[in-house]
Amino acid sequence: MAQDRQGIIAFFHEARAAGEIVKSIDISDLDLSFAEISEVMADHMIAKRINLSASVLSRASFLDCNFESSDFTNSDLESIDIADCVLSGADFTKANLQNARINISMCLDACFDEADLSNGELIGSTLNNSTFRSANLTAINAKKASFKFTDLTGAVLVNGNFEGADFTGAKLDHAIWSGANINNAKFDDGVRELVQTNL
Known about the structure:
By secondary structure, the chain is mostly loops. The chain is built from two helices and five strands, in the order H-E-E-E-E-E-H.
C-alpha cells in the first residue's frame, strides 16, 4: 500500500467501494487536507498528527483509532461515528460535527472552538482540559462525559443531556444552558446553583 497522499486516498476509496473495513494501518503525519473520504470504515488505525483540515469524512466510522494531535479544522464530519479512539490534542475548530458520535473516547487538550456538535453524542468520553469556546452543543448527549477543567465559554448547551457529567474546574462563562439536563452532574461549589438559574 502506497504511503503517499494519493495512494492512501485511493486505498480508502477502494475499501469504501468494496464495503471493507480498513484495519491496522499507520498513516501518521500525512497531509490529507481537502480530501474526500466520506463513509470510510477503519479499525485500529494510527493517524497521529495527520492533517485532515477542510476534508470530508461525513458518515465515516472509526473504532479504536489514534488521531492524537491531528488537524480537523473546518472539516465536514457530519454523522461520523467515533468510538474508543484517542483524539487528544486534536483540533476541531469550526468543524461540522452535526449528528456526530464521539463516544467512550479520550480527548484531552482537544480544541472544539466554534465547532457544531449539535444533535451529536459524547457519551462517556473524557474531554478534560479541552476547549469548546462558542461551540454549538445543542441537544448533545454527553451523559457521563468528563469536562474537567474544560473551557466552555460562550458554548450553546441548549437541551443537552449532561446527566452524570463532570464539570469540575470547568470555565462556564456565558454558556447557554436552557433546557439542559444536569441531573447528577458534578460542579465546583456554588456553580450548580448558578447553572440552574439559567435552565
